[in-house]
Amino acid sequence: MTGNHLNLTQVEAFARQAHARQTDKAGRPYTEHLAAVAEGVRVRGGSDGQIAAAWLHDAIEDDALSARWLAEAALPQEVKDMVLAVTKRPGEELSAYTARILATPGALLIKEADLAHNAGSGPPRGPGRTDAYPADREVCPGTGAVGADRRAITRGPKGFGQPVNALIHP
After folding, report:
1. Integer angstrom CA distances of residue 11 from 92, 118, 160
2. Which residues share a beta bridge with 146?
3. Who contacts 156 (Cβ-Cβ below 8 Å, separation ≥6)?
4. Are the C-beta atoms of residues 107 and 85 closer than 8 Å to each other?
5. Please, what is the angle between helix 8-18 and helix 48-56, to 10°?
6. CA angle in degrees (0–180, nearest 5) for 13-146-120
7. How far apart are CA 115 and CA 107, in angstroms?
8. Which residues touch 84 (CB under 8 Å, ≥6 apart)?
9. HEC states along the chain?
10. How far apart are CA 12 and CA 7, in angstroms?
11. Contact yes or no for 111/120 (Cβ under 8 A)
């Protein structure tokens, strides 16, 4: 991200402020999840744009930031596109959501990092947690999909709860 766009530190600050009062189901600050997803994207080779989108991946869906804020934000269009791609819309069919993620360059890596963290395989979320994000996963040719570590993910954000395979090969 260059030019007059927000840098990663600024995007992180916006995300942290927007989600400051939000907690996850276990009562932890929700910003821990955002940080873990951003780190998951980073360690898997994501670009600065993907990392920025990871920080913002739940902002619209959780009403932490508005769609108008995103549209007007000093962010590259590709970052905005990734955020909107991974934003689940009310009443949306899983197949439409999946198709949008797969059709948007860079979005699948963000969703994989999100699902991995939700399933407990992401970077540490709190004291005593020692598991590390698996940075050396294989990628299926032509899909960008998880290959070697294709474990079924049985829970995810807001009922997403489909195996990774179902997301990639609906």
Report:
1. 27, 22, 25
2. 139
3. 114, 115, 118, 119, 162
4. yes
5. 10
6. 55
7. 12
8. 60, 67, 70, 104
9. CCCCCCCHHHHHHHHHHHCCCCECCCCCECHHHHHHHHHHHHHCCCCHHHHHHHHHCCCCCCCCCCHHHHHHCCCCHHHHHHHHHCCCCCCCCHHHHHHHHHHCCCHHHHHHHHHHHHCCCCCCCCCCCCCCCCCCCCEECCCCEECCCCCCCCCCHHHCCCCHHHHHCC
10. 9
11. no
CB atoms within 10 A of CB 139: 16
Q: What would the two tokens of residue 140 be? A: 């299926």
pLDDT digits (tens, 9 = 90+) for 36-71: 999 999 999 999 999 999 999 999 999 999 999 999
Of the candidates 165, 170, 50, the one whose C-alpha atom is nearest the C-alpha of residue 105 is 50
Amino acid at 83: V
Residue type, position 10, single letter: Q
Q: Which residues pair with 129 in a beta bridge?
A: none
- Phi, psi dihedral angles at 53 (to 5 degrees): -65, -35
Partners of residue 23 on adjacent β-strands: 29
The pTM for the full model equals 0.72
9-39 pLDDT tens trace: 999 999 999 999 999 888 899 999 999 999 9
